[in-house]
Amino acid sequence: MTKADIVNILAEKDGLPKADAQEIVETIFHTLTQTLVAGESVKVSGFGTFSVRKKAARIGRNPKTKEEVEITPRRVVTFKASDYLKEVIEKN
Q1: For residue 45, what are the contacts with CB-CB under 8 A and spacing of at least 6?
Q2: Mind listing the pLDDT tens digit for each residue in 26-78?
Q3: Any domain includes 5
């Protein structure tokens, strides 16, 4: 599913013009992005929690050449599904 699919579903379900639905979807994703950039978590009740985690520098290995390579520290986004979402997925 793409953002365009979400826009189409929102427009059809709620009878909104596609331009308005597009603006709503873009605003939601922009807000989520800015919240994660600020280092805060985003909890969507019944769906799950997005959070930012810091990963320390470490030594990795190129699997082909076996050469050791330093992996720089970075921030990554993680997602933890809610119990409800896990349950719904498991049943279907």
Answers
A1: 82
A2: 999 999 999 999 999 999 999 999 999 999 999 999 999 999 999 999 999 99
A3: yes
